Amino acid sequence: MSRELRRNPALSMIGIVAMVIAYVLAFTVLSDTNMASKFENGVVPPGADVAGVRVAAVGSIVAALGAWVSVVAGRAIIPIVLVLVASAPFALLSLFTLQLAW
């Protein structure tokens, strides 16, 4: 069997770690005090810098996409299932964080 057709456990592990990073970035947006104020009042307080929050919101989606690419390239079934299960709530979470960031 050629090297290309074997399973790569390192890629699968990197994919799981990337999904954890995606969740951490999404929860960073939700835990920001300026975003809590926007959630309660509908507007960001004057003088608040939201660039970092926007980067975290987009970065979480990029990390989730990277997780998918990594676990699919690793070709192991269990990490693919784990990332699939983690992606369902993350899809709703990412929509919510993107709406808060913009």
Automatic annotation (TrEMBL):
Q: Which UniProt keywords apply?
A: Membrane, Transmembrane, Transmembrane helix
Q: What is the name of the protein in this document?
A: Uncharacterized protein
Chain ranges passing through the membrane: 12-31, 51-73, 80-101
